[in-house]
Write a structure and sequence with these properties.
- The protein has no helices and 18 strands.
- The chain is globular and about 45 Å long.
- The strands form 5 sheets. It has a 4-stranded antiparallel sheet, with no helix packed on it. A 4-stranded antiparallel sheet has the order 5-6-7-8, with no helix packed on it. Strands 11-12-13-14 form a 4-stranded antiparallel sheet, with no helix packed on it.
- It is mainly β and 167 residues long.
- 36% of the residues are buried.
């Protein structure tokens, strides 16, 4: 991701890399975790990285990171520590996705996230925000859209293959 003059990349084992000039020279930063980091975004003056075992890292500068363990309360009233596959920011809300079709939102990136009904149990692998719309994609061709991060609609997408057939 890019924000505030710095590119930030994350990868397994809690590794965070930054660069200010988009070259091959990157600097490793201390993340405070060895959990896999699966996504990173920048919004509202804050970098946010998410990963396995409820890992949420925040930073105002991309250099110094603070770890919180995210949880949410499921329909049974139990506290759940989710794993995250990706995160994005838009319209004042951070939206994170994870396996089993779970979507979580937060406005302040604290340890408490709010589950949203996605309408699918397929793994959700990515999420982005643009043109006033959140879009999440997942396994088995799953595509979900939302204008507010709270209410999600499943989209059936088709495409034309190289041989001209519609898939």
């Amino acid at each position: 991701t890019y924000g505030n003059g710095t590119f930030v990349a994350v990868n397994p084992n809690g590794i965070i890399l930054t660069t200010t000039d988009n070259t091959s020279s990157w600097t490793e930063r201390t993340s405070g975790t060895t959990n896999n980091l699966n996504g990173v975004t920048y919004g509202n003056g804050t970098y946010v990285s998410v990963g396995n075992s409820g890992t949420v890292l925040t930073s105002s500068d991309g250099t110094t990171w603070t770890k919180v363990t995210a949880t949410y309360t499921n329909d049974n009233g139990s506290t759940v520590t989710p794993s995250f596959n990706d995160v994005t920011y838009g319209n004042g809300t951070f939206v994170a996705v994870n396996p089993n079709g779970i979507i979580l939102t937060s406005t302040d990136v604290t340890s408490s996230w709010h589950p949203r009904t996605s309408g699918t149990t397929n793994d959700l692998n990515g999420v982005t925000y643009g043109n006033s719309t959140y879009v999440s994609v997942g396994n088995s061709g799953t595509i979900l859209t939302s204008s507010d991060g709270t209410t999600w609609t499943k989209v059936t997408a088709t495409y034309t293959s190289d041989n001209g057939s519609t898939e």
